[in-house]
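Expect chain and fold; thus:
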Amino acid sequence: MSRPIAVAATAAFGADVLERLASTHDIACVITRPDAPAGRGRKLAPSPAKLTAQRLGVRALEPERLEPGLDVGAPVVVAVAYGLIVPEPVLEERLWLNVHPSLLPRWRGAAPVERALMAGDSETGVTIIRLVRELDAGPIAAQESFAIGPCDDAGTVFARAAETAAELLTEVLGASESSYREQVGEPTYAAKITAADRRLELDRPPKELVDHVRALSPHIGARAELHGRGVTIWKARVTEDGSFEPVEVQPDGSRRMTYDAWLRGLRR
């Protein structure tokens, strides 16, 4: 095992990277967001990263906000899908590295994977930066690209990014001396996904619609009204005649099913 590190993570992507790191690194603690309302009943539920920490037997810290003096038990904190701003006095206490699933400076911000897919990007990647006060603007410690396949959705891209992130972090953390380079190029920004972003405008070009569906699957879902019914679209394709066709849908109040099965049910 290498020297201990702490991991600041909340969302599922962070939990995935945490699990991969735990197989080769000594995780001193996990810093995560406090339990939050979730699901239809809005009951308090732990974050995916907290659940992973518990399963791994790693100490979890859940501060409402980060303040100097937090006992993390390590000289380095890896932040990945954490979701809180790290104040400058906290950054000054130790090295904070950040895992960002894009090729910075492209797609700084909250939803880099989703925005890359929506834009029809043919590649993305992972960037490890030293965390600074400005959003995703820190110097680069490591970066690696990979292709986005025509059938990839956000789930497959996140999985590939988590695997790549763990490999890059092992290299960065194992290096005898830190080396950084400044980000080069004009930044683009990946705004947080809102309810409006889920709505499909069906008059848009078919490929753009399919890319939008891919970007929101399998974790959010694109919304549309089809045949007078509200549905969530999880998979879609461009047909041979060039039109947009849902493949997997979830009618409001029902389960996921193929589009063909749903149509058959409507005709009965």
Observations:
- The radius of gyration is 20 Å.
- The chain has a mean pLDDT of 95.
- Residues 213 and 268 are 28 Å apart (CA to CA).
- The longest helix spans residues 154-174.
